[in-house]
Structures are given as structure tokens and as C-alpha cells.
């Protein structure tokens, strides 16, 4: 199942893979059927269509199940239509909207899936997969009804797959890492805005650029070549000030909504007649005309972009210059627009100005009826202004204003202080609005009707005049799609990435490097958001490689563990979207999945306790982890008894150690540091805290090895203001417990020589791995070593 982290323009396609053929032919129902439910973005954007085609090709479907076409949101291409266009040979089944029921889908999957329901994460990730589950419900219903079979319980292999060419970050991690929204946003109030990565980078100027940035943060890239082309572009922008400022200036000249208007050209509207326009028709005509004005404004800015990019060197900018700026088709279409549209017409945001621009968009003299409609529009508009003047004088209301909005048309706005007593009865629809009163009169209402009708006529005639031009644009829609995509990408790289880096002191951000199989090494990394809040933020490094694939971070409360974990993930995400990172140096093994498990509150929605939520999240990670994953665990097992917690944390670590994934594990459990004495691929680090006169001084500096900080919990509790009598009692209890523990440890603990012997043996085995020995043999030997160690027979 595929999910993109919450893009709005998404829909569901249910695909049944080729293997279904075998199943459907053989109705014993015992074979395992593999279903793929793809949640796909679709709009007129070229690249999204490409994604769909790739995925559909990949699965080679025999049946595509889609909801009815009318469900496509306004302005979007219906999924059904896309299937017709690109997969005419594939059987298409249209099922009623009611069949796409996510609740039913979740129940069916739980019942039919061969895997443990926890592995699918349905409890925790229900919301994230709701579209997939809805499509599952429809697909299963179709199979059962069409083939007259019943799928037996636990016979389906169901997997949740992410996008193939992007890093996947599950919703819990998106939340934990504060990628889009800050944690506890209610707590931080308005100042919370800058506390998420998205808001930190959201200096984009266009809607498409902002959307692209959000989509990138939710699904960073995986392809090193693409990432590097973005980084090359950033290199050039950072080293060429003139280019950077020139580009930011020029991008402002393009309308903000360039990408959004393209869908207005995708469908041919109904034939316009001279009958009275319905509200929807008028709106569509208005959108189409405003879209042409907007394209004209965008094309006018193109020569300026060309001038700025003339000498650009990097692949992206040079390619934009070659394929967009030098493409003569844009000049041709601009010329065609110029033949019909008045040169002075501009894209405007104020409703009345925008509408007036639209009525007068087509050059005078092209259509006689349009000229008459315009005259009538001008006359009624003038009459409305004269009426307002008349009221100003007659009722002594010099501050009476005549605002306009698309819904009401013209209305009066009068400051309340100007109204002595009551308004004359002539004024109707009186509504208080702040310090003003909004109202109308019968005369104004009647003029508004005439004005609106003249405006409607203007739209009809304008649209008729633009028909040929719209057809020409429709033919070249791919060119405009390219232009829109280019503008979004440039907006993201220039206005977001380059702008963010340029606002930091020189060399604070560096270009990351990438490897396929190498280590994850970050030297002096900083938290991208917190470093601007704490002026004295302490940088920290990390090194994880295949030979040392787990880092256990220890340290007392408040020492900086969670911040460090978040910082590493955010640096990787920044790097994989093609941005510089806040570090002295960074080499990154491309990550395909980030999993985080950080302290959660009770999950009231799924009726789970803190411990249960923790275990479900951990189960989800364990069962979906891949070779190139990054797993970040913060204090696993603290929500249950300390012995069970330690046992779970220990065994989870052992499981993760056997994988190629990289793990960073933060914990308070000092006993966990003993893992390093058995497994040479575990590295222990701790956050240094200075304790003087029973006072904790946090240094936020990461040091090698474990470190015992005695009774830091008590010290912190004292700082938090617990009564001294309570602290004293707690102190005496801990000293007694500690004494007992020390005695027990003396009895049970293996002697130092034995630990060192095991450690050296493990190290030798790892060396063997790099000789020509088979990995399985080494693993088995390690396992035996572990067993003997636990049994004390070493
Ligand atoms: N490197 C750093 N430089 C400066 N301040 C930091 C640094 N790391 C963390 N801090 C500050 O210390 C506070 C506590 O950090 P954090 O929550 O990461 O500690 P923790 O060890 O995870 O605590 P706990 O174990 O109680 O969850 C943060 O809110 C942040 O303000």
C-alpha cells in the first residue's frame, strides 16, 4: 500500500496483480493472493501521471477498480479517465462509492491477512492508510462477488509499501520529528510556528513551491544523482550572489498560482450558448479567463528569467535555460495571446480589479457583442458610483464606502460613528461588521442585478473570443506543465533552501556527501530548529557504519538525548531533499525508511496505554525494517517494570543488531551498556553532565563510553521543587536499594576477564566477516559465543 503522508490531491486505485489470475482461475481459495492497493496522487501535473504509469506498469494489473468518475474533485482529471487514457486494454471496474469503506477494509484486512495485524500497524496507522483500506474493501468485495468465492481467513499476503523512489517516513515519525507540525503546538502558541522543519524552510513564494517543499519533507529523495543535481544548483547559487539575488527577484514576477491554473485547460468546457449563465458556468468562464491572464503574466516574466540564467553552469539551471527559456514555443504562444488579449491586462488579486481586468481582457473591436456588454457593464457600474455619491450628500455620510465582493456584488460600508441614531429605512440588509455597518438599498440591489448580468454577458462573449486561443494552449499544455514544475522547483531551491542557508553565518551549513553502503558520519551536527532558539547550542557528532551499526546514547534526564536523536534524523532529511545541512561535515548512507519510537502519551484514540502504544510501534518497526533503514528509539521499555523493560530493550537491540539497518538507541538503563561487551558493533556514548555540590550542570556534549551519574533523578526532582522531606526519604530508600543491588551484582556478575574474552572473540569474528568466510557461519559462531556467555561456560 502506498501513502504519501497526507497530500490532498490523492485518490485510490485498486490493482490486482497478475498472480491473481492463478487464484481467480483456481477457486480453491487456499492459494495466497497478493493484492496491491495504491494510493496515488493525480492531477494534471505531468510527473504525477508518470508516477502512476510507472506503478501501474510495475504491477501489470489484470483489473483496475475505480470509484465513479464524478468523485474527482473540481478541476482534477478523474482517475477513471486516466485509466481509459493510459490503460485502455486493462479491464476497468467501476464500483459505487459506498464500496470504498475504510472501516470495513480494516476489518477485512485484519481477518484475511496472513501476517499478524500488529505487523500491518493497522491500530496505530489506521488514519494514515484509510484510502488504502477503503480500496481494499472494494477490491475484496469485487473478487468475492465476481467469482462467487469466499476468501478464507488469514490467506492474504498484505504489505504496506511506500513509494519506490522516495524515503518513507511513517506518520508517527513525521509527528515525532516535528517535520510538518511542532509537537505540543497548543503549548507553544503562535511562537510554535518556527518549531517545525517545514515552517523553518517555508520561505517559498508560490503555492506550488510550498507544496513541493512539504511533499519533499514528507518523502525525501533516494536517488543520489537527483540529490546531487540539487546540491550542485545550491553550490552555484551560494557562490554566485548575483545569480542568487537575480533569481529571487525574477521569481517574484511570476504569478503565485501558475501551476494551479493549468487544470482549467484540461477539460473542454460545455459549449457556451447565449442563454443566461448558471453560477457554475460563470465561475468556470471566469477561471479560464483569469488563467489566460495569469499565463500571459508568466510568459511576460520569461525573458527576465532567461537573462538571469544565461550563464548558469549547473545542470538544473542550465537545463531550465535550454528547455524553457530558449524554447521558442513560449514566445509563439505569447504572440498568440497578444493577438487577442490586451497588452495592459495584468493578473490582479483584489476581486473587483481582477474582475474588471477579466471583462476588458479581450482587445476592443474583436467582438461587437462583447463591446456592447462592456458598455452596459460600465454604465451600471457608473450608476452605482453615482448612487453612492447621492447617498453621501443626501444622508450626510461622507465616509460611506462602496466595497465589492464576488458573492454580494457592491454594498455600502458606513462607519458606525457616522450614524446618528438609526439608519434611514431605505437601507436594508443592515449588518454590524466591526466598527462599520454593511448594508444595501433596493436601488443598489437592482443595479447590482443589471451589473451582474452585463458581467455575465461579458464572460460569455470573452470566452467565445478565447475559444481558439484556449485550444492552442490546450495543445501545448505539456509546455506549461513543464514551466509550472520548473517554477515550483526553482522556488523551493532558491527561496527556501538557498535563502535559509544565506541567512545563517557563513559555513554554518555544509554540502552533505552520499554513499550507497558507507557510514553515516556527521561531524559537529546541530539541530536545525533549536540552534536558532539556543544561541549556545552545542554541536555533536555521530558515526555509524556496517561494522558498528548501533549507537546507544546514555545520559540523565534533560541531558540532550532526544534532541540529539531528532537532530540526526532532521539532518538526514535535509540532506536527502537536496539541501545543505547544519554540520561541519556530513556523509550519509542513503536512508530508505526512517522509523522513530519516541516517548508517547497514552493513545486515547486507539484505546492503548503508553506501554501498549510503545510495543505496537516497536512491533511495526521490527516487522517492516529494511536493510537501509534508520531506526531511532528513545527510551524503549520505560513504561513497564524495570526488569521487563530492560529485557525488552535488550532483546530489541539484539534483533536490530543482526540487521544491516542503522540504529540509534537512547536510554536511561545503564545495564544496556553491557551490550557493548558482547557485541562489537555496539557503540556506547553518553551525554556529559557535571555534578558539583549536588548540582547538575548540563554540558550537552556527547562523550565516548558509558558513565554512571549517581541519583540524578533525585537531583532533578529537587530542582523541580519537590519538598525536602520527600527528597530525604527518597534518598534513604535509594541508598538501601543500591546497597542490595551491589550485593546482588557481586554475586551474579561475570568477572572482567570473561567479558573481555568474549569481546575479543567477537571482534575476531567480525574480522573474519571481512575475510572470505560466509556470513551465516560467522553469525552462528557469534550466537554460540553469546549462548556460552549467558550460560557462564565461556
Ligand atoms: N546540544 C544542545 N545544546 C544546547 N541545548 C540543548 C542541547 N540539547 C538539548 N538542549 C536543551 O536541553 C533540553 C532537554 O533536552 P532533551 O529533551 O533532548 O533531553 P533528554 O535527555 O532527552 O531528557 P529526558 O531523558 O528527560 O527526555 C532541550 O529542551 C534543549 O533546550
UniProtKB/TrEMBL annotation:
Keywords: ATP-binding, DNA-binding, Meiosis, Nucleotide-binding. The keyword Lipid biosynthesis does not apply. Belongs to the DNA mismatch repair MutS family. Residues 548-735 form the DNA mismatch repair proteins mutS family domain. It comes from Gossypium mustelinum. SUPFAM superfamilies: DNA repair protein MutS, domain III, P-loop containing nucleoside triphosphate hydrolases. Residues 192-533 form the DNA mismatch repair protein MutS core domain. GO terms for biological process: mismatch repair; reciprocal meiotic recombination. GO terms for molecular function: ATP binding; ATP-dependent DNA damage sensor activity; mismatched DNA binding. One of its GO terms (cellular component) is nucleus. This is DNA mismatch repair proteins mutS family domain-containing protein. The keyword S-adenosyl-L-methionine does not apply.
Amino acid at each position: 500500500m502506498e501513502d504519501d503522508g497526507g497530500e490532498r490531491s490523492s485518490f485510490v486505485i485498486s490493482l490486482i496483480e497478475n498472480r491473481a489470475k492463478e487464484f481467480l482461475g483456481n477457486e480453491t481459495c487456499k492459494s495466497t493472493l497478493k493484492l496491491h492497493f495504491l494510493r496515488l496522487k493525480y492531477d494534471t501535473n505531468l510527473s504525477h501521471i508518470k508516477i502512476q504509469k510507472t506503478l501501474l506498469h510495475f504491477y501489470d494489473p489484470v483489473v483496475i477498480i475505480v470509484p465513479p468518475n464524478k468523485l474527482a474533485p473540481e478541476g482534477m482529471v478523474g482517475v477513471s479517465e486516466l485509466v481509459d487514457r493510459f490503460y485502455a486494454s486493462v479491464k476497468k471496474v467501476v464500483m459505487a462509492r459506498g464500496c470504498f469503506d475504510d472501516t470495513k477494509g480494516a476489518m477485512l484486512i485484519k481477518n484475511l491477512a496472513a501476517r499478524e495485524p500488529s505487523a500491518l500497524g493497522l491500530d496505530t496507522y489506521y488514519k494514515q492508510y484509510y484510502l488504502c483500506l477503503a480500496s481494499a474493501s472494494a477490491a475484496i468485495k469485487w473478487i468475492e462477488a465476481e467469482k462467487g468465492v469466499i476468501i478464507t481467513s488469514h490467506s492474504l499476503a498484505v504489505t504496506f509499501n511506500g513509494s519506490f523512489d522516495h524515503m518513507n517516513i511513517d506518520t508517527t515519525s513525521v509527528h515525532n520529528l516535528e517535520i510538518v507540525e511542532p509537537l505540543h503546538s497548543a503549548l507553544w502558541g503562535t511562537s510554535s510556528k518556527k518549531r517545525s522543519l517545514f515552517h523553518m524552510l517555508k520561505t517559498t513564494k508560490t503555492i506550488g513551491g510550498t507544496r513541493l517543499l512539504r511533499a519533499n519533507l514528507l518523502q525525501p529523495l533516494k536517488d543520489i544523482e537527483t540529490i546531487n543535481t540539487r546540491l550542485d544548483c545550491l553550490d552555484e547559487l551560494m557562490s554566485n550572489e548575483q545569480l542568487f539575488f537575480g533569481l529571487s527577484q525574477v521569481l517574484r514576477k511570476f504569478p503565485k498560482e501558475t501551476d494551479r491554473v493549468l487544470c482549467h485547460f484540461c477539460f473542454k468546457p460545455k459549449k457556451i450558448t447565449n442563454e443566461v449563465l448558471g453560477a457554475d458556468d460563470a465561475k468556470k468562464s471566469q477561471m479560464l479567463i483569469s488563467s489566460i491572464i495569469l499565463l500571459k503574466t508568466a510568459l511576460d516574466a520569461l525573458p527576465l528569467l532567461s537573462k538571469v540564467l544565461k550563464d548558469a553552469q549547473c545542470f538544473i539551471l542550465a537545463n531550465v535555460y535550454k528547455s524553457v527559456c530558449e524554447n521558442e514555443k513560449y514566445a509563439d504562444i505569447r504572440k498568440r495571446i497578444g493577438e487577442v488579449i490586451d497588452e495592459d491586462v495584468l493578473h490582479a488579486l483584489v476581486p473587483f480589479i481582477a474582475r474588471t481586468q477579466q471583462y476588458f481582457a479581450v482587445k476592443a473591436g474583436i467582438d461587437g457583442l462583447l463591446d456592447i456588454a462592456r458598455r452596459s457593464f460600465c454604465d451600471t457600474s457608473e450608476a452605482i458610483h453615482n448612487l453612492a455619491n447621492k447617498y453621501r450628500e443626501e444622508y450626510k455620510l461622507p465616509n460611506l464606502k462602496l466595497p465589492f465582493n464576488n458573492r454580494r456584488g457592491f454594498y455600502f460600508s458606513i462607519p458606525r460613528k457616522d450614524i446618528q441614531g438609526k439608519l434611514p429605512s431605505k437601507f436594508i440588509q443592515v449588518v454590524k461588521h466591526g466598527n462599520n455597518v454593511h448594508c444595501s438599498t433596493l436601488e443598489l440591489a437592482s443595479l447590482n442585478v443589471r451589473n451582474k448580468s452585463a458581467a455575465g454577458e461579458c464572460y460569455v462573449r470573452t470566452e467565445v473570443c478565447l475559444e481558439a486561443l484556449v485550444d492552442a494552449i490546450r495543445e501545448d499544455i505539456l509546455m506549461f506543465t513543464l514551466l509550472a514544475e520548473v517554477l515550483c522547483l526553482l522556488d523551493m531551491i532558491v527561496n527556501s533552501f538557498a535563502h535559509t542557508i544565506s541567512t545563517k553565518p557563513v559555513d554554518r551549513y555544509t554540502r552533505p556527501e552520499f554513499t550507497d553502503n558507507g557510514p553515516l558520519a556527521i561531524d559537529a551536527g546541530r539541530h536545525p530548529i533549536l540552534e536558532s532558539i539556543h544561541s549556545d547550542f552545542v554541536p555533536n557528532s555521530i558515526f555509524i557504519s556496517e561494522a558498528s551499526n548501533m549507537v546507544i546514547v546514555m545520559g540523565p534526564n534533560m541531558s540532550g538525548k532526544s534532541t540529539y536523536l531528532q537532530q540526526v534524523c532532521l539532518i538526514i532529511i535535509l540532506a536527502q531533499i537536496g539541501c545543505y545541512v547544519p554540520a561541519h561535515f556530513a556523509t550519509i548512507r542513503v536512508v530508505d525508511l526512517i522509523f522513530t519510537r519516541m516517548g508517547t502519551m497514552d493513545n486515547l484514540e486507539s484505546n492503548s496505554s503508553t506501554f501498549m502504544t510503545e510495543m505496537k510501534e516497536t512491533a511495526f518497526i521490527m516487522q517492516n525494517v529494511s536493510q537501509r533503514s534508520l531506526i531511532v528509539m528513545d527510551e524503549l521499555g520505560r513504561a513497564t517494570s524495570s526488569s521487563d523493560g530492560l529485557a525488552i530493550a535488550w532483546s530489541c537491540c539484539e534483533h536490530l543488531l543482526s540487521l544491516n539497518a542503522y540504529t540509534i538507541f537512547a536510554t536511561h538503563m545503564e545495564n544496556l551498556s553491557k551490550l557493548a561487551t558482547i557485541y562489537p558493533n555496539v557503540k556506547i556514548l553518553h551525554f556529559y553532565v557535571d555534578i558539583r555540590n549536588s548540582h547538575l550542570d548540563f554540558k550537552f556534549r556527547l562523550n565516548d563510553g558509558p558513565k554512571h551519574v549517581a541519583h540524578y533523578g533525585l537531583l532533578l526532582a529537587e530542582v523541580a521543587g519537590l519538598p525536602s522531606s520527600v527528597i530525604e526519604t527518597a534518598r534513604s530508600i535509594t541508598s538501601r536499594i543500591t546497597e542490595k543491588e551491589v550485593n546482588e551484582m557481586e554475586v551474579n556478575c561475570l568477572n572482567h576477564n570473561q567479558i573481555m574474552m568474549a569481546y575479543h572473540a567477537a571482534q575476531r569474528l567480525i574480522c573474519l566477516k571481512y575475510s572470505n568466510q560466509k556470513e551465516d557461519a560467522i553469525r552462528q559462531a557469534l550466537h554460540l559465543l553469546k549462548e556460552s556467555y549467558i550460560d557462564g561456560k565461556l
